Amino acid sequence: MNADEPSLMDLACDERTDLAEFLATLTPQQWQTESLCTGWTVKDVVAHVISYDELNLPGLLKRFAKGRVVHANEVGVAEYSTMSTGELLKFLNQHLRPRGLTAGFGGMIGLVDGTVHHQDIRRALGRPRTVPEQRLRRILPLVPGNPRLGAGRRIKGLRLRATDIGWEHGSGPEVTGTGEALLLAMTGRRQAAEELTGAGAATLLGRL
């Protein structure tokens, strides 16, 4: 990283600030709209985004045990979705700089999760935005090798190429599209994958 570039934590804070400002514009009906995360409303997604900020290692182990590991996210959502939308937004504004487990790996977790889930909400509501290029350039290289996100198996044997920011990854049949669409497709969002083109696009779509 260039010494003049913001840190991952700074970018995560910027992303959360943008998300909080957007959420403040939503109606009660929009908070109840289903997001791109199957089974989760916009409110549920926001609950998930903040659900690890005040969790320490013992708390994480307890949540893993309760959710039998694979359902740990659902446990967190269930705990935080009892808050009102106003309370969730207030909590987010008090945690614009990720804390706890969300601050892991220098802010990487907060940045990637915040950006992906921000798009989950915006796309579901038909309120698109252009993710700042600086953030996309930092996020995209972090995704393919992250086992928690499952991107590796989805893009195996494919060459991804972003048409707007000059990012490339992998080898094989090509999959092209915007950096934002590639990010969301790598993290399992079918809606975004349907926007991609190239000889490998159908293969990627079929893996979702």
Largest sheet: 3 strands, mixed
Percent range for helical residues?
40-55%
Rg calculated over all Cα atoms: 17 Å
Number of helices: 12
**N- to C-terminal distance:** 32 Å
What structural category do the secondary elements indicate? mainly alpha
| Nearest-integer average pLDDT | 91
Quantity of strands, as a count: 3
Low-pLDDT regions: none
Spell out the blueprint of helices and strands.
Elements: H1 8-23, H2 28-31, H3 42-50, H4 57-67, H5 72-80, H6 85-94, H7 108-125, H8 133-139, H9 151-155, E1 159-162, E2 168-169, E3 174-177, H10 179-186, H11 190-193, H12 201-206
Parallel strand pairs: 1-3
Antiparallel strand pairs: 1-2
3D structure, described in words:
- There is one protein chain.
- The protein has helices at 8-23, 28-31, 42-50, 57-67, 72-80, 85-94, 108-125, 133-139, 151-155, 179-186, 190-193, 201-206, and strands at residues 159-162, 168-169, 174-177.
- It has 12 helices and 3 strands; from the N terminus they run αααααααααβββααα.
- The longest helix is centred in the middle third of the chain and has 18 residues, at 108-125.
- α3 (42-50) crosses α5 (72-80).
- The protein is mainly alpha-helical and 208 residues long.
- The mean pLDDT is 91.
- The protein is globular, with a radius of gyration of 17 Å.
